Amino acid sequence: MSGPYRLPTFPGASLDRQHTLRFRFNGRELTGYAGDTLASALLANGVRTVGRSLKFHRPRGVYSSGVEEPNALLRLSSGVRAIPSARATLTELHDGLESYTQSGWPSVTTDFARVLDFTAPLWAAGFYNKTFMWPSWHTYEWAVRRMAGLGHAPPGRDPDRYDTRNIHCDVLIVGGGAAGLREAEAAAAAGQRVVLAEQGPSLGGRGAWNGANIEGQAGHSWAARLVEGLRGRPDVQLLTRTTAVGYYDRDVVTLLERVPVDGARGSRSERPNDGGPRERYWVVRAGRMVLAGGALEQPLVFCNNDRPGVVLAGAAHEYLRRYSVAVGRRVIVATNNDSAYKVAGDLRDAGVEVVALADSRKDVAEALLGEMRSRSIPVLLESLPIDTSGFSTLNGVTIGRLSRDGATVVGEQRFACDALAVSGGWAPLLHLYSQAGGKLRYSSRTGALEPVSSHPRVTLAGSAAGEKTSLGPRVSPAGDTLRKWVDLRHDVTVADLELAIRENYSSIEHVKRYTTVGMSVDQGKTSNVAAIEIVAKLRGVSPEALGHTTLRPPFTPVTLGAIAGRSVGDGFAPSRLLPLHDWHVSHGGLLEDYGEWKRPAAYIRQGESRAEAIRREMRAARTAAALFDGSPLGKIEIQGPDALAFIDKFYINNLATLQPGRARYGLMLRESGVIFDDGTVVLLAPDHVLITTTSANASRVGAWLEEWHQCEWPDMRVVITSVTDQWATISLAGGRAREILSRLDTDIDLSPTAFPHLGTRVGHLLGHVARIYRVSFTGELTYEINVPASAAGMIWSALLQAGEPLGLQPMGIEALLALRLEKGFLHVGTDTDGTSVPDDVGWGKAAASKRADFVGKRSLLMPENRRTGRLQLVGLRGVGATEIIVGSHLRLSGSGEATDGWVTSAGRLSSSGEPIALALLRGGRDRLGSEVSVHDEGRVTQARVAEPIFFDAAGERMNG
Amino acid sequence: MLRISCPYCGVRDEPEFVFGGPTHVTRPMGDVSDARWGDYLFNRDNPKGPHHERWLHAYGCGRWFNAVRDTVSHEFLAVYAMGEPKPDLAAPEAGGLR
Amino acid sequence: MCLEYKGTVRTWRIQRMHRYSFLKVIQHALRGNRTWQPAWRDPVPQSGYDVVVIGGGGHGLATAYYLAKKHGIRRVAVLEKGWIGGGNSGRNTQVCRSNYFYPASSAFYDHSLRLYEHLGRELNFNVMLRQSGLVALAHSEHELELQRRWANAIHMNDVDSHMLTPAQIRKRIPAISLQSRYPIVGGFTQPRAGISRHDAVVWGFARGASALGVDIIQGCEVLGFDLSEGRVRGVQTSRGPIGAERVVMSVAGHSSVVAGMAGIRLPITTMALQAMVTEPIKPVLDATVISAAVHSYVSQSDRGEIVMGGGADVYNSYAQRGGLPIFRATIAATLELFPSFSRLRLMRQWAGAVDVTPDTSPIMGLTPVRNLYINCGFGTGGYKAIPAGGDTMADTVANDRPHPLIRQFGLERFTSGALIDEGAAAGVAH
User: Fold this and answer.
1) Interface pTM (ipTM) of the complex?
2) Looking at the whole model, is its pTM more than 0.90?
3) Among A84, A222, A239, A477, which residue has the fewest nearby CB atoms (within 10 Å)?
4) DSSP string, A747-815
């Protein structure tokens, strides 16, 4: 015996009584057995109060034995492994388990806030909508907020990991009871791939422990035989501790599998088994689905039906037969259906005193009555509990005799007891059916929701399909409705439902939202149908016509970590690494995120700040040369007879005259006329075009060209291939670039006449194929060297080795951007936004002069894109030494507008330190020379509008 | 998660695909009014029910195709190649690619 | 607030709207809460009204309320297909903010936030606005520059806003992780932003409107318009024809369908936007946190639930249920920001059907059909606009011209090209 309420073991019980487990409850050490749940072990130890209710702080005890548990929500473990609000009814006991109640001050058994219970009418539904308005909600909100919620988020990063499994099957069976096993066997016999998900740790369902015979065998033996047969089949996957939690379009079901902790096998460790995941999230693509998840028992509604000691009858049965625990020593059973008779009988047979059985029906099968008579259990027909007593836990029940019409109580009788097992009928589990689009309706016959019609891919089996039963009343007509609980977790009573109807919150959805019935952590599993019945009666309509609230996913709460799976930390998003990544890391490269790429912002030398490094690299480029890894630059090849004609449709620039061996700058628009991207167009051969794109848009532009080709111009003979990753791009920029490059073995003539600015050459460099373009983003003489990615390291090192004596340094992306700012070169996405058209950035004439159609051309003629006073790209020179901050806004003198534009890029001239910037300014090109005020978080400075070029305006350096 | 039948590869999971919005949208050519151009750029059929749209099997064959999908049930009623006319959904073969 | 009204089926006699106060709560509690009056009436539809508002969501009810309150137009009906507040008004994440980039948006949404700030007392119904602030996160230097541009824009529009350093973010939101896959390098805040209770906003406007004489008619679906000579004369409904001098469409999620009945084509795509909540826990997050880079916004409701949202599902959908890929991505994004939430459990998820416009700004004002007005296209952000949407639409309908605050939000902009592209400017879903 472990605990005062433990009984001898029944056949089919889960317990391993050779194996005692020690666990803690609020610091108290208790024992249980392997196979116990935390709830069964607590009951066995006589623990009655496991929590306090939300509003009234009434004591609450274990109410159920499953997912519907509204009361026994405990914190498990501590620190970063803490699990808030774990259902004690689903928590398998393991050695060393720590559990804590989450409510009550100073303790769960003595809670001073119980005083709220004595002012309950004040806290009726919607009370907060009617008050707390003066002076404002803020005055009260903090206190209300602290009263709400249960448990705490752990204090740090989750040390456990979670896995995702993706599988396909012909049939997914939800529920491993008798019905589910039968379905699995039939489907397997038909050669189908079967996945069966059972929420509990073992298969067989209620039949395995409730003493029933199946096909002439004891239930547990029958189940064991079937399971053995199924386990031998390769196409059958049996998952235990696995709950089907959500149905998603189309025919995808998610399962949550809990991996037991080592402690369940006796170790004190709380790490998941074998270092594996804590939970698994299964994504199942199912050809069809069978729901055989059974049914949930519904409560009876009467005064003070919430006291510790009131439990669902089926739960009392399960604790008795499966865990050998009595829910009390003197038990009353109250029911409106047949199912509780077996509970009363088994309790009596186990030696528990069954004081009486109350049944709200008038006519009950003689066989059932005989069972009770033979055990000397008094049966009270047409009777319901109407009240209970006991301040902390239950000590008595008043049974009332109903009038013929059930509308009043005509007599009552009080019994002393310490437990009351109630059954208000059984509601089939149809959550996934509803999520899959199946329509449901309340049925007065079953007192639950039932399907309106069949579903093409979801069928129901076992008690999920509904059972024939006669049902008596389940709501007591007597007593104060303020004391009749409908939703135990949220403290919603019949009085709240009455108030909602009185105030015309009469749609069932309004009732739910106004009273919060069914909105708590159990999502109405033991309150929704009772609420429908009560509301329908209050409104005088049939419950069938009332409708029901939506059964939303998930069926049971799902750990967020499990949903995310491995998509956390570094797994959240892939990092793209440069071909020269290792070199950058080992040479001081400060890696930062640029889109999905990790790129060196700068190369930091000993004792240098980021800003100092950027300035040093800029100086190297301007005075000698710099080497830049530009590999993320988008590179797309278009090949075929129509290559040039095709690509001409995408740029505002005229490309028809482009000659082989030449490159041209190009600006690309969306169909709306807004600037999309820019880059270089290179004609490698008459039928072979290569375009470059900004790094950020590399994949977007490629996909976009492909879409236009396939969907709009499928007849054009082109093939589009992204070669971004195949070719590394190394940019050698600076006055000494030619000198450095010529030190490497190459068959390309580098002389300025043979290879001028905007020339392109294909040849060899150190024996590797190389495509070299003379395009410049820094304003310096630049060779953009493209070599196969595998050769990048070798070429890079050779260039550095050759160039270092001449002052060559590696340069990060920040220095590059600062150099291009000095030149005023456009950085699409920085100096433009989703409203910029070519004229705004000085390309209006080019766009207007191109005769041929191009994407976005017509949009440039829309009134908005032709009006005056648009934001135009200009340069700014700071008045004084104060740096101009990117993101500052501008205001013209005398302007009545909130803003006249903003700073898009900013820095200082590397030569003089003068603050410079690029900005989008209202009518900017007409305001050259005038002053604007620059606003940053309330600080105001001045700047002068200038041409957007600050260095080598004649372009002599890059042309050299 | 939608399960989408690529006409070239068969049924695959939604994350392999890119949604491309309505299909059978004609790009106006030549001299068109602002109203006509604005209609092309911005206005959408957006039906509640069968919707003609295009999808790209991006992480697969890389091809665009057309589909008719119900915007309430999310069921694919037909898939067909780019350039093909709208299928007759009442015809028995239209549902064949489901 | 005096009104005598007799319907034909059930007699509604509301002589005075019973005021709500703590004293009243006590008085009624002492009488067992049996003396409360209906919050709004359920009248049968009359044959005609001065104004018919289609859609009993926040915007529609607010429009009716302000028509009656500010313009004295009380022969107003709000027609609701289902139950009031059952669409996006009851499905959003309750965020109220006005940190918009363009002056037109900023002015409109700040007007809304200012109305929200006094809405509880205006309606005598506590809408539970908690201005705990909004924090937008930047995960790269480039994003930080864009945010500074954004924050300064808000500042220039005279709306409160300022930049935050990572240390300030950590102090403001202790549960956040600065070292995620995309480290947090800064952000900005609008301190006046907050969350309120969405149902309360709907019910408050309904109660206020009903007390002023507005007929709120639930279970009444509009099936068509009565049009003649280019103007609207009334609507056909599931409960028969109802005449109307003027009609307002306020049917987020179904705008294309309803406008289509009047022959109007809209630049709208209807998509599913998901939201989800965890089981309630004790206070751990006292701000609304938005990250555009990881696509997530997170707050904690006053019930204790962690409320999460992300991007819309990518395809057209009227289904009001979310797809698995975006759902999982939203959870993963939330855990990037708050790794300690990993062991919390998701309690409920749902979705709304939202109207998405090409520039992510709403469409409000007149239509090509005379006396027919439209209010739609709020995309993912209509909740915060409810009071201003109602106020400006009421004014627009009463005067048959766009209210000054919504002049730039008219349908004409899709012909002129004068979009108000908040998404493009700020790079952020809202």
Assistant:
1) 0.95
2) yes
3) A477
4) SS--STTTS-TTBEEEEEETTEEEEEE---SSSS-EEEEEEEGGGHHHHHHHHHHHHGGGTEEEE-HHH
